[in-house]
Amino acid sequence: MIKNKGFYFLCFCSFILSGCWDVVDIEDRGFIIGSAIDIEEDEGGKQPEFTITNQMVIPAGIASMIQSGGSEEAYLNFTSKGKSIYNIQEEVAAISSKVPFFEHLTVLVISGDVAKKEHLFSNLLDTYYRDVNMRRGIKVIVSEEEAKNLLEFTTPASNLPAMHIEENLEKSSKHVGFLKPKAIGDIEELHLQEKSFVLPYLHYGEYLEYKSGAVFHGPKDKMVGVFNTEEMKGLTFLEGESTTKIITFLYEEKIFALKVIRLESKVTVDPKNIDDMRVTIDLEIEGIIKESINQEDLTQSQEIESIQKAVSNEVEKIVEKALKKGQEDLGTDVFGIWRKLETKHYDTWKKVRDDWEEGEYYFKDVEFDVNVITEIYSIGATNKTT
Fold first, then answer.
1. Does residue 249 register a pLDDT over 60?
2. Where are the domains of the chain?
3. Which CATH class is domain 229-386?
4. Residue 71 in 3-state DSSP?
5. What are phi and psi of 69, to 5 degrees?
C-alpha cells in the first residue's frame, strides 16, 4: 500500500511539474501588429482571390535602432494569396520561422476595392469576429490605394508602419477633430443592425493622410462613396465630438481661425408625418480666436457678435453640406437620425425601419433645420493683429 502511494505521488509530481503541454516560448512567437487585405481581379464571376499582408515585428531590429541607430528593419511583411482568409493566415506559419500571434494586432487595412464589393467586407471581417485570439479593439481603415502599401510606409520618427497608422489616426482625432476610428467590435454591431457608418479613408503618397471618410451603406453592405475633408468636419459637428477643432472662416473678407473648446449637439426629431419628418439640429460652440488678419477692434461687443455670427454661418454651411451628401448623393443615414427615432419615437421607427435607407427610403424626405450658436470668450492675448 505504501509503495502504491509513493508511485501515485511521483506520477502527480511529474504531472504538475511538466508545465503546459502547448506552451510556445516568446522567442518563437511572431507578433503580428498590422494586416492588410487586397483583392485580385475576379474573372468570370468566380470566387475572388485575396492577398493578405501581415506585418510581423522584429524585436532585434527595434533594439538595434534604439541602442545604436542601426538600419536593421524593425518589421517584416508576409504576403500570401488565397480564397480563404483563415487558410491564408495559417500559411504564415509555413513561410515564417515564428508562430503567428495575433493578440497584438492593432490595425486592419481594407482596400477600397474590397470595401466596394457588396457583402464582401462583412464576410471577411467574420473571420476576425470569430477568432478568440483577436482583440475587439482592432481599428479598421480603408485605403484609397492597395492596402498593403500602407504597411510599407515609414517615417524617421516611426519605423513600424502599423504603429504609425494608429498614431496618425489618434492624433487626427484628438488634435484636428476628425472622426474617431471604429474598432472591429463596433463594426460588428453595426453590421448586425444593418446600419450605415463611416471609416477613415487613408491616402498613401508623400505622407500618410487622413482627410476623408469611406461611407458604408448598411442595407447594401458595401462602401458607396467618400466624404471629403469638409464633409467629415460636418459629420463630427453633428456627432458633438468634444475633440479640438479649428474653424477657418471669412470675416470682412479676412481670414479668421477659431479654436473650439466646447461643442454640444442636440438633435430633435418631429415624426408626426413619416413622409415629411422634421429634424432640428442645435449646435452650441464655445471657442477662442487663434488667428485674425484684421484691423478691427475685437474688444467691441458689436464686433464680437458679428464674428460669432460669421462662425455660426460657416458651421451651418459645413453641416448642411455633409447632410446633403449623405442624404441625396449616397442615401445613407450616417448621422444617427435612426437612433433618435428608435429611442425617442419607437412606434414611428417600427413603421419606417425596413424602408429607412432603401425601399420607400423615408430618410430622403427628412427636412433638416440647422441652428448654430457661437460664443467667443477669448480674443487672444492682443487686441489687434496689426
1. yes
2. 23-227, 229-386
3. alpha beta
4. coil
5. 65, 30
- Whole-angstrom Cα distance, residue 71 to residue 63? 11
Residue of 100, 130, 86 whose CA lies nearest to 33: 100
Strand 50-57 versus strand 75-82 pairing type: antiparallel
Q: Phi, psi at residue 270, to the nearest 5°?
A: -110, 105
Distance of alpha carbon 378 from alpha carbon 290, whole angstroms: 9
Give the integer Cα–Cα distance in Å for 61 and 109: 24
Q: What does the pLDDT average to over 282-295?
A: 83
pLDDT for position 21: 46
DSSP 140-196: EEEESS-HHHHTT--BTTB--HHHHHHHHHHHIIIII-PPPPPBHHHHHHHHHHT--
pLDDT for 176-218, tens place per residue? 667 788 999 999 999 999 999 999 999 887 788 888 999 999 9
In whole angstroms, what is the distance from residue 116 CA to residue 199 CA?
13
